[in-house]
Amino acid sequence: MKLLVAVLAAALMTGAAPPAAAQDSSARAIVPHFTPQQAASFSKQMERDLAGRGARVAIVFRAGRMRDQLPEGIAYTHGAFWVYRDIQTADGQSLKGYAVYNLYAGDGKAWPKGESRLVQDFPLDFTRGSTVNDMAVIVPSPEMQRRILAVIDSPTYEKVHNPQYSLVANPWARKYQNCNNFMLNVIGSGIWETDNPAQITANLKAHYKPTVVKANGLVRFFGPLADQRLRTDDQDATIRTATYESMAVFMREHKLLQDAYIFNYEPRAASPPS
After folding, report:
1. pLDDT for the residue 6
2. Facing residues of 80 across strands?
3. In the prediction, which pLDDT does 219 show?
């Protein structure tokens, strides 16, 4: 942690403006990137792709911050479960589609910044929070999809949630969570068939290799010192966090993966047929 303090202090002394932190489980992008029509088109493209792969459960990641603000090796800032199921519309109809299961941090208005809540919304809500034209996708194996869905639909889903939020929560500790750590706990509950958060954390420490933030990315990664969501007392000299990249490697190495890929927005698909 001495290294972190030194790097941040140096940045402040040189007048560097601290940009946004990387693992930001915010409901919205900092800078709007898509028009409402483009966001709707992108979300539909993503849904069609997942449905074409037969994915009942997928893990989708977006970049809610510009890429030049992110450290090396980290391209996405928020992830959530996309689940294909019956959806009740406002007028009482039942339709088939993807529901999105998120962990969101507070904005200091709706609820405190240091607290997270579990929120179910929809693909359009997820997509319009992106600042770039691509999203990353993990499609678990069919058996893992079944297990993850069983956890989501059980009391375990709430039990493995820790509302104490940190932008850079350490997946080897239980003190804080961000969106990716929460998803790892849901996945871990499915893998090891337990609802014990302490056991899941111990198993992750034994089997999951987090992403390590390199020293040259610390200033960009750790962002505003005054941000209440920045808490690092669960870390040691090495800063560890969960990312799409390390989660995909973990699931591939343990044969829990059907596919992992980058999905790109196709602007032409946004135009209605003439």
Report:
1. 40
2. 60
3. 47
Residue whose C-alpha is closest to residue 133's, from 36, 221, 34: 34
The predicted structure's pLDDT at residue 31:
64
Q: Which residues contact 88 (CB under 8 A, 6 or more apart)?
A: 94
Q: Compute the distance between CA of residue 163 and CA of residue 179 in angstroms, rounded to an integer.
A: 10
| Residue 105 DSSP SS3 | strand
**What angle is formed at CA 31 by the lines to CA 25 and CA 33, rounded to 5 degrees?**
100
C-alpha–C-alpha distance, residues 99 and 120, integer Å: 7
| Sign of the alpha-carbon torsion through 91, 94, 100, 104 | positive
Q: Where along the chain do its domains lie?
A: 2-259
Q: Three-class SS of residue 215? A: helix
Please report the pLDDT score of residue 107 as a whole number: 82
Mean pLDDT value across the chain: 85
- Which stretches of the chain score pLDDT less than 50? 1-23, 29, 219-221, 223-226, 270-274
231-243: string of b/e by CB count within 10 Å (b at 16+)? bbebbeeebbbbb
Q: What are the pLDDT digits (tens) for 199-232?
A: 999 999 999 999 998 755 554 445 444 466 777 8
SS3 helix, strand, coil % of the chain, rounded to 5? Answer: 35, 20, 45
Q: Is 173 left (phi over 0), alpha (psi -120 to 50) or beta?
A: beta
Structure tokens at 14: 């040189």
- What tokens were used for 178? 């961000």
d(CA 197, CA 102): 18
* Residue given tokens 């059980």 in the structure block: 154
C-alpha 80/C-alpha 71 separation (Å) is 21
Q: What is the DSSP letter of 72?
A: T
The one-letter amino acid at 127: T
Predicted pLDDT of residue 28: 54
How far apart CA 119 and CA 117 sit, in angstroms, is: 6
Count of residues for the chain? 274
